[in-house]
Specification:
By secondary structure, the protein is an alpha+beta fold. It has eleven helices and seven strands. It is rod-shaped and about 120 Å long.
Length: about 375
């Protein structure tokens, strides 16, 4: 009986998803987090030139060194992060130890660096979980050298680079005609394009919620508003710094970036600015929906209070008449009259009807 007494409160508490709040804000940047080692590390190497293309599944991390300075452009993609594997590739391709620490970091803010002739960037992939209706992230790091690009993916099971792989297999594709800086652009452009897919999913949820709030504003609607606001925080937190990241490539004076490739990075910058504007628009929509919810709740409360006030006013004449005739005086009119009771009851009914007519005429209800 004790359990059942409070059981009906549990769904209401779970609606607001306080555990999601802990996930968003529990990270402490002053404490170095420990990354859990990936159970499986998968390394794929794509070695190509204008008239040559090879795809290799590398079993030993050290075998990647054979593709260094071979006269072609090489893309090494690592799915799953393990400390030893990451450090081995970084050492073989001259990627600074500070960058390898960033690759293995957890909760790192998206950024771009130019260290010892390596252009490095770190950002998050975004995915939309249809089951939990939440935005999930997966860290990805990209290191670019003169003729190679190394990408480190936290979660390779949700890879979004298949369109690039298909283009690499085509001999007349633009990626095959250009150097490593264009490949790096293509990777960043694919990641940013995937942001719009996630935003489209959130936009659908916002549209559904808007209709729900307008039709009926209840506790569940407030919980949905709270849920979507948290997901927009995740979206904005990961998209906003990418503007600075892409701008870093545009302003970079590194010899690794060709002048004719800069316009492609500017195109990615335009996309990420547009994505950021969308997040701001979504945020404004959520604030407006919260205002609509509060206005609807207040409106319903006002309607209830108006009905209660009208009922109270209609009952007032009966209370006054009953009070007068209930006084203990001998000289009360109609006290001993045989029709006195019926006259008083008729007055109790007639006066409220007149009041209803007046209220209706004045538009009070």
């Amino acid at each position: 009986m004790v359990k059942n007494k409070y059981f009906h409160y549990l769904p209401l508490a779970s609606l607001f998803g306080t555990h999601r709040t802990r996930e968003l804000f529990q990270f402490n940047p002053t404490v170095a987090p420990v990354r859990e080692e990936a159970k499986e590390v998968k390394v794929l190497v794509y070695d190509y030139s204008v008239d040559h293309f090879e795809e290799h599944h590398v079993k030993q991390i050290g075998d990647c060194l054979a593709f260094k300075n071979n006269g072609r452009t090489t893309w090494i993609n690592m799915d799953g992060l393990a400390k030893q594997a990451v450090e081995t590739i970084c050492n073989d391709f001259g990627i600074h130890a500070l960058l390898s620490e960033d690759i293995l970091s957890v909760g790192q803010r998206p950024k771009m660096d130019d260290v010892d002739g390596i252009l490095f960037c770190l950002l998050n992939m975004l995915y939309y979980n249809e089951i939990t209706r939440t935005v999930e992230t997966g860290q990805i790091s990209i290191a670019m050298g003169y003729d190679f690009v190394v990408s480190f993916q936290e979660d390779g099971s949700r890879d979004v680079f298949d369109p690039i792989r298909r283009k690499l297999a085509m001999s007349n594709s633009k990626i095959r005609q250009r150097s490593a800086d264009y490949l790096c652009y293509a990777l960043l452009d694919t990641i940013v394009d995937n942001y719009f897919i996630v935003m489209e999913k959130l936009g659908e949820q916002i549209e559904i919620l808007e209709g729900e709030v307008i039709r009926r504003s209840n506790t569940q609607s407030l919980a949905h508003i709270n849920h979507l606001r948290k997901e927009l925080i995740v979206l904005k937190r990961n998209i906003a710094p990418v503007r600075e990241l892409i701008n870093g490539y545009i302003r970079s004076e590194s010899d690794l970036l060709n002048d004719d490739t800069t316009k492609y990075y500017k195109d990615v910058y335009d996309h990420i600015v547009q994505a950021y504007d969308f997040t701001e628009n979504y945020r404004d929509m959520m604030m407006n929906m919260q205002d609509i919810y509060l206005n609807n709740v207040n409106l319903r409360m006002n309607e209830v209070m108006k009905v209660m006030a009208i009922v109270t006013c209609l009952m007032a004449p009966a209370a006054v008449i009953g009070g007068i005739f209930g006084m203990n005086f001998e000289a009360i009119p109609l006290l001993h009259y045989r029709w006195g009771f019926y006259i008083s009851v008729a007055a109790m009914l007639f006066i409220p009807l007149v009041m209803l007519y007046i209220f209706k005429k004045r538009g009070w209800y």
